[in-house]
User: Fold this.
Amino acid sequence: MKKLILIAVFAVFSASTAISASLTPSIGISYNNAGYAGEGTERNFDESGVHRTTTQEYGAFAEQYGSIFVELGIGDIFAVGIDYVPADISSPKNASREGSTLEKMDPGSSTVQAEFTDLTTAYLKVNIPVLGGTYLKAGFAQVDVVINESMVSGNTYKDVNTEGYMAGLGYNHELANGLSIRAEATVNQFDDVQSDNGVTTASESNGGQNKVQVESMWGARGTISLVKSF
Assistant:
């Protein structure tokens, strides 16, 4: 999907040979203060494949990161662009005790932490001239979810990816020499994701299968950008 987004944006930029007089390319760098949340469900199965326990948790975290974007203005009203976050967005680490056995009262703890990488958003920006530099923004985002775990059993969770929609409101203040400053607030919704620990047939050496599903994922993002238009 990410390749399709890049191809679509490249095609729009290539159209400048036909309507170059009405197109305005821009590049920008942004500082983002964001928060993300979701509900996770873990289902644990024993060695015979019977579902034994279910754990549900709602989690939220905040993160600050930079991003870059390229944009093409079409006339005075519309612009299309693509925004990319080069840094990983890291969730807090979750740790849990694995219980005890007759031989060992504390076998240790398992930890799981997720990193959201290559967050990429293709968007449409619509200026509202009657409100000065105010604009609306809507788009489609995709992100890879890398699951970092340290499991007592030695099993690992599979990495996944998710996608969803973005919408927001912003204000653009023009400076001199094609420079401008933007401030905007956006919200994201992401599709549910599911992963497991790779166990298909259980044994005493690897334990039972664990399945994790994260749903109702959303995020809010406040952004300050410095933009250069050509």
